[in-house]
Amino acid sequence: MLVRRRIHVAGIVQGVGFRPYVYRLATERHLAGQIINTSSGVVIEVEGAAEVVDDFLASLPAQAPPQALVTDIRVVEIHRTGKSDFCILASDPSASVRTLISPDMATCAGCLRELFDPADRRYRYPFINCTNCGPRFSIVRGIPYDRPQTSMSVFPMCPRCLAEYEDPRNRRFHAQPNACWQCGPQLEFCDSRGQRLPVDDPIAEAVARLRAGEIVAVKGLGGFHLAADATNSRAVGRLRERKRRIEKPFAVMVSDLESVSRFCTLGSEDGELLCLPQRPIVLLPRMKPCPLADSIAPFNLYLGIFLPYTPVHHLLFKDSELQALVMTSGNLSEEPIAIGNSEAVARLGDIADWFLLHNREILLRCDDSVLRRVGGRPRQLRRSRGFVPVPVFLKREFPPTLAVGGELKNTICLLRGREAFLSQHIGDLENVEAYKFFQEAVDHFQRILEIRPRIVAYDLHPDYFATRWAQKQPGMQAVGVQHHHAHIASCMAENDLAGRVIGFALDGTGYGTDGCIWGGEVLLADYLDFERAAHLAYVPLPGGAAAIREPWRMAVSHLWASFGPALLELPIPLFRQIPRTKVLTVLQMMERQVNSPLTSSCGRLFDAVAALINLRLEVNYEAQAAIELEMCRDEAAAGEPYPFGLSQAGNLLQIDSRPLFRAIVEDLLRGAAAGEISRRFHDGLVRALAAIARILRKRTSLNTVCLSGGTFQNACLASGLEHQLESEGFEVYTHSQVPAGDGGISLGQAVVAAHRATTGAGVLAPPGSENK
Ligand SMILES: [Zn+2]
Ligand SMILES: [Zn+2]
Ligand SMILES: [Zn+2]
């Protein structure tokens, strides 16, 4: 029997070689019909024998190109036309756009072969790409995703490129960034003021400068990198100094997988992560000894490693004898990554000795993504290049909603139907540059996704940039979402959970509904609301932000809670490091309650322990003390987990850290090693949290637990608690698609706000009003 069927395919099906794929699939089977790109994906019509059409349909999702993501297929019977050819029709530039834009993708194996094939017309061409690879998200101006809507629009294709572009059998058919030496973007080599140098081969020049220990700013896919030879301590030291980045680890790009094993312990699963088409930075245990400069990641047992992902990267390593390059974001300190040529020269001219530039415009900056394997599973530490803008798929439909995220590691999230689009890493909204980037990202995402949100979700902290921005937006229903509720809702959303859960939200800082600084929270939560069921007992944060920069203050705060004024008599190593006058000042602040807000922060608990054992008294980057405390843990050390106390007021449980600090002081006085204290602390915290879970299960009959918050980026705590809870029969959910840290809260904010708005449930009072 002959049939004709119309097939709607939704997902990432444009710009990824989907039409040539379908063309091949149909013509191989001698099926007639057509395919067209529409605003909602692709629409295919096929005509032929019913069983052949069935076979076509079965193969369609199964053999799709590697970068395609098919999310929905709908099939209807239509009238036969009797035509016998299969054709690809021009795109339909119609109204509402529901298709998905592909992320930027690493150079594929096919392009790599051509890149180094002297007989190929693109031999050593630094911008070689095809439908399986190359820039996408970072060069898109609008949709539908076609060349005029990208920053490639200024490069008219030469006849040979155009022929490939128009040939449905070619793997460059409708590859929007398609280009070659004749028609495409070009590299140039410039000095630190942006003056072009008359060199024949900009790559060879950059390699020579890098090998001489100089710093080269390299324009990449989503922004600039600052590159230096990672085996050259002086070069790395100079980069640190000029970038004003003290101790915070640098990422290292290594020439190939085989070379990685010279620097890091590499499991087979880690190799797979490094080779993902997104080419993320992966945290790997550093070899001892390691031929790379120590100053790349001081006091850290891990290195952030990634593999080359653009033709320029591959060319830099080929034949250069460079094994590894520090490739750190092209910015000063915590500012956003630079993307424009003149912008980069202005901002990076004092850091870089040279610039390797090109003339393809980057339209939206996008930092590298960072993954770490915890408990055998990859976790997102920073979800950015390669992953954005692939949405998180949700179970139910939502009205168009914008969530503006938090203050640190900011991302935004747009909801549309069943899709949640998280932005790339925007960063800490503490400087003007980052705030501008935030506004750019909001505008750009709304434009390329054609979403006009009616609801805007924000964090309750009244002083956050994003919160104040959200409250100024006209014509939108503004919904405040508590920080830790957003963490738990984010974990629920990516795991498709419904109903109520026991949520552990552990992090550094989040504004509480009582005006205190929360951060060690156990919530009974659903998408609408939460009950605070337990928290770490409050202690003062003496000096506010100063206590975050100087963990020794938190040690004094916890000692004060545990020992009172007698803490001054303790013969502990900390007091040999910190002058007595400083300690007394902090004590006075707390006694008089001056600039000492109360906090239940778990991050600050880690800080206090790290400072007390003299590991880290002041930090140079966020979570440094907690990271070093995790690093020093001695798995083989003996000793019971440290004790925590538990008290109850009504239904609210409080986790008392005083027994912990008394035990640590006792151990310090008997000369216990830091590695032992670290291990017993981690284990003690796991035991205390598991005890809370059991109490709450008994009280509520809930058995589902969600773990979220930046503290769960600590592998010992995350896998320790997961393992413990699972062994006690809990169903434990964590993050895998979005970060557990504040980069993931915009998702939670969005789903909570959308639930509240659609069910007409109470909207929380505006921030700040809780205290009035
Ligand atoms: Zn390719
Ligand atoms: Zn060309
Ligand atoms: Zn948080």
Structure commentary:
There is one protein chain. With 772 residues, the chain is an alpha/beta fold. 32% of the residues lie in helices and 22% in strands. It is built from 23 helices and 28 strands. Strand 7 and strand 8 form a beta hairpin. Helix 15 packs across helix 20 and helix 18 (602-612) crosses helix 19. One zinc ion binds next to helix 4.
- Structural class, judged by helices and strands? alpha/beta
Roughly how many Å apart are the termini?
75 Å
The ligands bound in this entry are: zinc ion
Number of DSSP helices? 23
Report helical residue fraction: 25-40%
Tally the beta strands.
Answer: 28
Q: Give the integer mean of the pLDDT values.
A: 93
Topology, element by element:
Layout: E1 2-12, H1 18-28, E2 32-38, E3 41-49, H2 50-62, E4 69-78, E5 86-88, H3 109-115, H4 159-166, E6 187-191, H5 202-211, E7 216-219, E8 224-229, H6 233-243, E9 251-254, H7 257-263, H8 268-274, E10 281-285, E11 302-306, H9 311-317, E12 324-329, H10 341-348, E13 354-358, E14 370-374, E15 377-382, E16 392-403, E17 413-422, H11 432-449, E18 455-459, H12 465-471, E19 477-481, H13 483-494, E20 501-511, E21 517-525, E22 530-536, E23 539-540, H14 545-549, H15 551-563, H16 574-577, H17 580-591, E24 598-599, H18 602-612, H19 624-631, E25 645-649, E26 652-656, H20 658-669, H21 674-700, E27 704-708, H22 715-727, E28 731-733, H23 745-759
Helix pairs in contact: 5-9, 13-23, 15-17, 15-18, 15-20, 18-19, 21-22
One zinc ion (ZN) is lined by residues 483, 487, 507, 510, 709-710, 742.
